[in-house]
Design a protein that fits this description.
globular, mainly alpha
Length: 118
């Protein structure tokens, strides 16, 4: 099962969508892994997949380097704050917050899909 989860998450990551949206829930639902551990696994998984996806996107000239650097630097700061916050939250609360976040993103995307189609 881990092979299938990793493969599907890799496809999603390569598309720039964010494999963690698939990987974290899949790890939690298919094994006895807690939210914090699933998020940690996602971060380790993300590094090599992001590097290869980035190489392809740079080759295809679909990255504005200056913008990416600014966002990346700010993202590192946000990651530090987010990691410290996550480690201090109860696992169950963190899981609910992540689920709510995914739900809101899903609702937004469905709404955009219907709005665009008209």
């Amino acid at each position: 099962m881990s092979i299938i989860i990793g493969f599907l998450s890799g496809i999603i990551s390569g598309m720039g969508i964010g494999g963690g949206a698939i990987l974290i829930p899949a790890l939690i639902l298919t094994s006895a892994i807690e939210q914090k551990l699933a998020q940690g696994i996602n971060l380790v998984y993300f590094l090599p997949t992001a590097v290869f996806a980035l190489i392809v996107h740079i080759k295809n000239k679909s990255v504005v380097i200056n913008t990416a650097l600014i966002i990346g630097i700010c993202g590192v700061l946000g990651a530090v704050i987010g990691s410290v916050t996550a480690m201090n939250l109860n696992n169950e609360l963190l899981r609910k917050m992540f689920g709510l976040f995914l739900g809101l993103i899903g609702i937004r995307e469905v709404y955009k899909g219907f709005r665009t189609k008209k």
